């Protein structure tokens, strides 16, 4: 018995246009936004925090040193600025002799001369004020006053005394001076009227006329000290000797030194 084939399914309705009304716009489902993948970032490098440097210790500024200071005995200084300042004070005080400043053409030149005298005196162991009292300059050359020469020698540890001996009369009158020094054989140095006449000094106006014996003595002392104590006086001669050099006699400095010598001898 043959089987009856089933009737084919009618699918023609699929080809017919749809009669369904599309839903209104507001009823349509909202499409989901496209989701973008989140960006992937590399992790930031670790932050290295450096320790702040330790603050420098606060050192209080040193108080400026005074240019001139009193050391208990006299005013002193350690540099050229201090020396110049002290020279300025003394120059304004009127305590500096005319012979010391003779020939200076300006204040700067006067201060420079005073500072040079300071330095020379300090090399001899004198304070600045002692240097001004003991040293002067004549025509660019420094010299010690006669009494200062004697004082330097007498204060030396090896000095065994200074003696003087007068002899003769008239042109034969002279004085012999011996400056004794420990461990050294010394001899007397003499200077007399005959020596002064040969040098053209005897009867010369000024101290040679008013104080002739004193000038003879200073000349003899100068010779004795220069012969035996040259290392102490470091080559300096006496002012009374230097002022009578022919090259200094008629100069302003030479005349000023002669006037001061007169004043010193009259004390």
Secondary-structure map:
Elements: E1 68-70, E2 75-77, H1 80-93, H2 98-101, H3 107-123, H4 128-134, E3 135-138, E4 141-144, H5 146-154, E5 159-167, E6 174-181, E7 189-192, H6 193-198, H7 207-210, H8 212-228, H9 230-233, H10 239-242, H11 246-249, H12 252-265
Question: Outline of this structure?
Answer:
This protein is α+β, with helices and mostly antiparallel strands and 267 residues long. The protein has helices at 80-93, 98-101, 107-123, 128-134, 146-154, 193-198, 207-210, 212-228, 230-233, 239-242, 246-249, 252-265, and strands at 68-70, 75-77, 135-138, 141-144, 159-167, 174-181, 189-192.
Q: If you had to describe this structure to a student in words, what would you say it looks like?
A:
By secondary structure, the protein is α+β, with helices and mostly antiparallel strands. It has two domains: 67-145 and 238-267, no CATH class; 146-234, no CATH class. 39% of the residues lie in helices and 13% in strands. It has helices at 80-93, 98-101, 107-123, 128-134, 146-154, 193-198, 207-210, 212-228, 230-233, 239-242, 246-249, 252-265, and strands at residues 68-70, 75-77, 135-138, 141-144, 159-167, 174-181, 189-192. The strands form three sheets. A three-stranded antiparallel sheet has the order 5-6-7. Helix 1 (80-93) packs across helix 3 (107-123), helix 3 (107-123) packs across helix 4 (128-134) and helix 5 (146-154) packs across helix 8 (212-228). The model has no long low-confidence stretch (mean pLDDT 86).
Characteristics:
single chain; 267 residues; alpha+beta; three-stranded antiparallel sheet; two-stranded antiparallel sheet; 12 helices; 7 strands; rod-shaped
């Amino acid at each position: 018995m043959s089987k009856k084939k089933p009737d084919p399914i009618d699918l023609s309705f699929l080809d017919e246009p749809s009669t369904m009304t599309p839903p209104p716009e507001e009823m349509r489902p909202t499409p989901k936004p496209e989701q973008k993948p989140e960006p992937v970032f590399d992790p930031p490098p670790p932050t290295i925090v450096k320790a702040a440097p330790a603050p420098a210790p606060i050192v209080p500024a040193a108080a400026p040193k005074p240019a001139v200071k009193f050391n208990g005995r006299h005013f002193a200084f350690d540099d050229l600025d201090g020396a110049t300042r002290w020279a300025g004070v003394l120059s304004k005080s009127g305590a500096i002799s005319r012979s010391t400043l003779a020939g200076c053409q300006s204040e700067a030149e006067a201060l420079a001369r005073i500072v040079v005298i300071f330095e020379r005196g300090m090399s001899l162991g004198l304070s600045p004020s002692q240097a001004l009292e003991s040293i002067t300059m004549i025509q660019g050359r420094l010299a010690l006053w006669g009494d200062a020469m004697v004082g330097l020698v007498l204060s030396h540890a090896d000095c065994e005394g200074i003696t003087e001996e007068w002899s003769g009369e008239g042109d034969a009158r002279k004085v012999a001076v011996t400056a004794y020094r420990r461990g050294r054989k010394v001899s007397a140095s003499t200077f007399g009227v005959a020596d002064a006449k040969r040098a053209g000094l005897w009867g010369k106006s000024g101290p040679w006329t008013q104080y002739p014996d004193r000038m003879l003595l200073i000349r003899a002392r100068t010779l004795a000290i220069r012969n035996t104590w040259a290392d102490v006086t470091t080559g300096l001669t006496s002012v009374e000797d230097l002022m009578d050099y022919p090259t200094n006699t008629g100069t302003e400095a030479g005349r000023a030194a002669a006037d001061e010598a007169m004043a010193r001898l009259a004390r």
